Amino acid sequence: MTEPDRPDSTRRAAEARTSPEALAAARGGVQEGLAWLGREPESKASLSVRAIALLARALLFGAFRFKVARSGQERLPAGGGYLLVAAIHRGWMDPFLIMHALPLEPRVWFLGSGPSAFSARWREWLLHRLGGMLPVWRGGVGVEQHVESSRAVLRNGGVFVLVPEGGVSGPPDAPATFRVGSALIALRTGAPIVPLAIAGSGELYLGKRMATQILEPTSARALLGEAWPATAPEEGSRAELDLAHALTDRLTALFAPVIPALYAETVDPPGRPRRFRGLTWLLLARPRPRKTGTKA
């Protein structure tokens, strides 16, 4: 595959965006997690959720003709009460790929970006009504509120989704840098971890192939092995942060050998038509090129 045909999201032009802090200030302040939701996160799928799921399937797999190869469903734990850690994250289709890889119940709840998801008021209203997301605003409160969100989802028998890369930038066939917040949540909840590998969502067009693979369930303790301490470190301590960094490295190593092979399954031959490539930006802000200075 020649370099021009490689849909590498690292080559996307940098986007000049308003900072999340400025967006929050413009809204007169924001709420995160459970404070924004204002209710317990449910694990049952309502009639509205089921109807929206059917509509989404008709659009994605009917109108857009996306083809998704999924595997590993037999590894899913019975019921909910686990963390699903998903990578790699390269486009707006990833949440739909995650939901496509899992049953409709128990409900999936994402720790998601408020600035990205709430670009329009109607989107925030719809997500609040349907559920399935607990928002994060960068520069806001620390991890404690999101740990509480995860515990509420797990307590009610749902599935709490963590996407440790945090953004869509990165190569199409390898993980980008994982943020440490996901590891902190895994450490503090002690919940089972189900890794989900994703590939092929960085560039979209009619009939695009994508793939997901559920890996063997694990836990923070199993991943850390001999590095697991005899006693749990104090929350917020340097020892806890060091342990979270170690767990982040282990999570990255878990995905690293899987993603290249999964991505290879999604690559179309150079001669295949790629119609309606604008689908790549359907639910993403199209990047604007940086302004370069000119000499007088």
User: Please, how many helices?
Assistant: 11
And the CATH topology?
A: Glycerol-3-phosphate (1)-acyltransferase
Q: Give the biggest sheet.
A: 7 strands, mixed
Distance between the termini: 41 Å
Shape: globular
Poorly predicted segments: 1-16
CATH architecture: 3-Layer(aba) Sandwich
Biggest sheet strand order reads: 1-7-6-2-5-3-4
**Mean pLDDT across residues:** 89
The CATH class, by name, is Alpha Beta
Explain how this protein is built.
With 296 residues, this protein is of the alpha/beta class. The protein has one domain (31-281): Glycerol-3-phosphate (1)-acyltransferase. The protein has eleven helices and seven strands. It has a seven-stranded mixed β-sheet, with helices on both faces. Residues 1-16 have low confidence and may be disordered.
Label this structure with key terms:
globular; 296 residues; alpha/beta; 11 helices; Glycerol-3-phosphate (1)-acyltransferase; seven-stranded mixed sheet
Quickly describe the structure.
The chain has 296 residues and is an alpha/beta fold. It has helices at residues 20-26, 33-37, 47-63, 94-101, 114-117, 121-130, 144-155, 181-189, 220-224, 238-255, 259-264; strands at 67-71, 82-87, 108-113, 133-136, 159-162, 193-199, 209-214. Helix 7 (144-155) crosses helix 8 (181-189) and helix 8 (181-189) packs across helix 10 (238-255).
